[in-house]
């Protein structure tokens, strides 16, 4: 691929601000659009089983909008419109993600790829696929348990035949998940759940990829080829094939060793406005690509939930703290009754203390905790200043 000569050069600070604005962290939040507006703006919100303060898909709109009710978040994703049509569906994007329903046609390339896939981790028992489709057609939306069981044993990976079949149907696009019941996927036939105009809008691979590359560029503001590919987990060669026709424009960024592309709308006006101070989910799209996070923020981000406890550096669910457009620390939180516990805190120096305290107190209020306890601070001399600042911030919040 021949890359056009960039006509725009960005400083590292300009690129950082563009990225923050594109992700909804710079400027006034779009409260009228609410949670659905956040989803449309980001293009994908990652799901994960871990729940500490809340699940990741709840933390993402909270980080941008503030203390939006958790039921409001769930309703925004899963409640259907007055027409009975869904606002969102769940599919494989960056990982398992909630996606705006209007993007259904643009994942046709991935559904076709799954249909052509020769090898799977789970064998599909004879007749199981046909039985699942028949049961959904007859009975309506069902969970895997209702279809005949999610697992054969207590082992998480030991799926039942019905679970294997319905997950295969989900990947193929014959079945869709447009709701979670508790934490269980609720499956329905795509022909019944997806609006007809979207269901039958079969785009070729190039059209799908152009759209997803453009969406990734808009959601990132500015990014390298690897950044753009990672957003919806595309292959590098897929990005190369369409990026020239995606509408993104080549730019250079100070300190970036790789070519970059930007959303032209992001270049029209300087990225200015009020910065959000908040805890971030480790699965937030602002930080989910490690190399990009280090390049833009000079911040090393690692999820250690699956790391053996003795080998953890920052804690089980260390949440980056965003303040002033910078990542200024990490908090590994927990809940004990009505107390939010900061089990381990890492601070980027004394100047980060007020921001981390503010983020802790706001998060505590959001999850209905009335107190905050700071247990360990990696820099011990900052423990007392942080604890005092948390007490002050709590007193201010309660006025």
Could you characterize what this model shows?
The structure is a single chain. Helix 12 (225-231) crosses helix 13. Strands 10-11-12-13-14 form a 5-stranded mixed beta sheet, sandwiched between helices. The radius of gyration is 22 Å and the shape is globular. The longest helix has 16 residues, at 205-220. It is of the alpha+beta class. Helices cover 39% and strands 18% of the residues. The mean pLDDT is 93.
Beta-strand level of the residues, as a percent range?
A: 15-25%
The first-to-last residue Cα distance is 60 Å
How is the largest sheet built, in terms of strand order?
10-11-12-13-14
- How many helices? The count is 17
Q: What is the share of helical residues? A: 25-40%
Low-confidence stretches: none
- Cα gyration radius (Å): 22 Å
Q: Tell me about the biggest sheet?
A: 5 strands, mixed
The total beta strand count reads 14
Summarize model confidence as the mean pLDDT.
93
* Molecular shape: globular
Structural class: alpha+beta
Give the SSE layout.
Elements: E1 8-10, H1 12-22, H2 34-42, E2 45-46, H3 56-65, H4 70-78, E3 88-92, E4 96-100, H5 108-115, H6 128-139, H7 144-147, H8 161-172, E5 175-181, E6 184-189, H9 190-193, H10 196-199, H11 205-220, E7 222-224, H12 225-231, H13 236-242, E8 249-253, E9 260-262, H14 264-268, E10 278-279, H15 290-297, E11 319-323, E12 326-336, E13 339-347, H16 353-366, E14 371-377, H17 383-398
Parallel strand pairs: 1-8, 13-14
Antiparallel strand pairs: 2-4, 3-4, 5-6, 7-9, 8-9, 10-11, 11-12, 12-13
């Amino acid at each position: 691929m021949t890359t056009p000569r960039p006509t725009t050069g960005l400083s590292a600070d300009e690129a950082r601000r563009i990225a923050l604005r594109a992700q909804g962290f710079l400027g006034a939040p779009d409260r009228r659009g609410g949670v659905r507006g956040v989803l449309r703006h980001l293009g994908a919100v990652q799901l994960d089983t871990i729940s500490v303060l809340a699940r990741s898909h709840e933390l993402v709109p909270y980080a941008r909008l503030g203390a939006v009710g958790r039921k409001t978040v769930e309703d925004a994703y899963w409640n259907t419109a007055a027409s009975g049509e869904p606002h969102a569906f769940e599919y494989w994007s960056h990982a398992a993600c909630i996606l705006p329903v209007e993007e259904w046609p643009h994942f046709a390339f991935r559904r076709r790829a799954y249909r052509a896939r020769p090898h799977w981790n789970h064998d599909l028992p004879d007749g199981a696929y046909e039985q699942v489709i028949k049961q959904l057609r007859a009975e309506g939306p069902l969970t895997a348990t209702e279809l005949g069981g999610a697992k054969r044993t207590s082992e998480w990976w030991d799926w039942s035949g019905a679970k294997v079949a319905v997950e295969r149907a989900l990947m193929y696009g014959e079945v869709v998940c447009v709701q979670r019941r508790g934490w269980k996927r609720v499956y329905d036939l795509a022909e019944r759940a997806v609006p007809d105009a979207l269901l039958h809008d079969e785009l070729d691979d190039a059209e799908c990829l152009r759209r997803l590359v453009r969406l990734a560029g808009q959601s990132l503001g500015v990014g390298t080829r690897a950044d753009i590919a990672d957003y919806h987990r595309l292959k590098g060669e897929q990005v190369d094939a369409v990026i020239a026709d995606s509408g993104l424009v080549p730019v250079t960024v100070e300190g970036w060793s790789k070519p970059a592309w930007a959303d032209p709308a992001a270049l029209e006006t300087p990225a200015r406005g009020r910065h959000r101070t908040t805890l971030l989910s480790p699965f937030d799209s602002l930080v989910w690509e490690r190399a990009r996070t280090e390049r833009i923020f000079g911040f090393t981000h690692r999820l250690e939930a699956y790391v053996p406890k003795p080998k953890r550096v920052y804690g089980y669910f260390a949440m980056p703290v965003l303040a002033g457009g910078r990542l200024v620390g990490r908090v590994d939180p927990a809940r004990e009754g009505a107390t939010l516990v900061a089990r381990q805190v890492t601070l980027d120096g004394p100047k980060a203390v007020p921001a981390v305290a503010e983020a802790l107190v706001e998060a505590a209020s959001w999850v209905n905790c009335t107190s905050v306890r700071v247990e360990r601070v990696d820099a011990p001399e900052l423990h007392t200043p942080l604890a005092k600042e948390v007490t002050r911030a709590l007193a201010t919040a309660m006025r």
